[in-house]
Amino acid sequence: QVQLVESGGGLVQAGGSLRLSCVASGRTFGSNAMAWFRQAPGKVREFVAGVDRSGTNTLYGDSMKGRFTISRDNAKNTVYLQMSSLKPEDTAVYYCATTGRFRIGVRRADYEYDYWGQGTQVTVSS
């Protein structure tokens, strides 16, 4: 079992920045890929960003590219999401996730991830 705890959510004005953190504990599968997803009311769960176990290969959702940066610190079992130029459309509950299903690369599909945090609310006001 892997436990994931997100933090850093809150209320921010459009154009502002926010940094989310997610700390993993328990069986972390040797620091496999970690990812961020989000879900807004009335919307499907959406891939935000992911990073492979090395921390060098990343993927981003289309609307996040150029604005968000994912990084990780394996010594701390922590993944970060630096969010800049935030828009009201970014308002959602943000979840971090990791997986025991693969060790190489990063994947976008939510079904590839087995372990999920409880989420942290990000609200961007206009």
Outline:
The chain is mainly β.
List keywords for this structure.
126 residues, mainly beta, 7-stranded mixed beta sheet, 4-stranded antiparallel beta sheet, 0% helix, globular
Please characterize this protein's 3D structure.
It is a single chain. The chain has 126 residues and is mainly beta. 0% of the residues lie in helices and 48% in strands. The protein contains no helices and eleven strands. It has strands at 2-7, 10-13, 18-26, 34-39, 46-51, 58-60, 68-73, 78-83, 92-98, 115-116, 120-125. Strands 2, 4, 5, 6, 9, 10 and 11 form a seven-stranded mixed beta sheet that branches. Strands 1-3-8-7 form a four-stranded antiparallel beta sheet, with no helix packed on it. The mean pLDDT is 94.
> Would you count the extended β strands for me?
11
Q: Portion of residues in helices?
A: under 10%
Average pLDDT, rounded to a whole number, is: 94
- Rg, nearest Å: 13 Å
Shape: globular
Report the sheet-strand fraction: over 45%
Query: Low-confidence runs (pLDDT<50, min 5 residues)?
Result: none
- Would you tell me the structural class of the helices and strands? mainly beta
Number of helices: 0
The ordered H/E elements are EEEEEEEEEEE
Largest sheet geometry = 7 strands, mixed
Task: Please give the alpha-carbon distance between the first and last residues.
Answer: 40 Å
